[in-house]
Amino acid sequence: MKNWAATVIAMGALVLPGQIAFADQHEQEEAQRVYLDEEYDEERDWSIGLGLGLVELGDNFVQGGFVVSDDDVEQYLMLNLRIPFGDRHAHRGASSTGFRGYLEPELGYWDGDTGSDLLLGINVVGGMPFNAVEFYVGGGIGIHFLDSDLVVPGGDDADEALGVNAHFGVDVSVSEGVSLFAMGRFDLVDDDRDELEGKAAVGLRFHF
Questions:
Q1: Same domain, yes or no: 33 and 82
Q2: What integer pLDDT is reported at residue 41 of this predicted model?
Q3: Residue pair 161/152 in contact by the 8 Å Cβ criterion
Q4: Which residues have a Cβ under 8 Å from the Cβ of 100 and sit 6 or more positions away?
Q5: Do 92 and 17 fall into the same domain?
Q6: Which residues are 202's β-sheet partners?
Q7: Number of domains forming the structure of the chain
Q8: How many whole angstroms separate alpha carbon 120 and alpha carbon 143?
Q9: Same domain, 113 and 126
Q10: 119 and 20: one domain?
Q11: pLDDT digits (tens, 9 = 90+) for 71-114
């Protein structure tokens, strides 16, 4: 009887520390999960970007033998909203690495001697953060509301055209909640120009 009791006590002495260690590890993992959830809730993953740049319109503004433009360059304004998607814990701010995905509704506009173009579009963007710097590439689709000079020279009405784009850029964090970005982009618009629009812009992104 004594031998049996001694065996039980000895087994308990061996198992109990392991159970305590397992419970401590579980508590630590749970505390870390709660911390990450709280950190994510406070993270500024959404952002609004406001930029100013140039658009190169190409030199193929021809309809019926009439040359509308010859390699024209106009000022370009852009505004977009970035909405993160995917793994919530992939978004960790300035100290993170990995991959981030964003949906990006956008508004773009230029106006010049050759006409004007108002863009309403949506992009999908992939970001690759390295500490305070985030490189990104993306593409999307949109509707271009064109001044008729870009469709029929000398016209008075606007026209709509479908367009697609591919773009790339970099965001650099400059303070808490604010980053500076630079972007290059190409738009192909289904209009009579049959040309790529080349765009370059810089601006500020406000994170919230």
A1: no
A2: 45
A3: no
A4: 84, 86, 90, 91, 126, 127, 128, 129, 134
A5: no
A6: 52, 182
A7: 2
A8: 5
A9: yes
A10: no
A11: 678 899 999 999 998 755 555 444 455 788 999 999 999 987 77
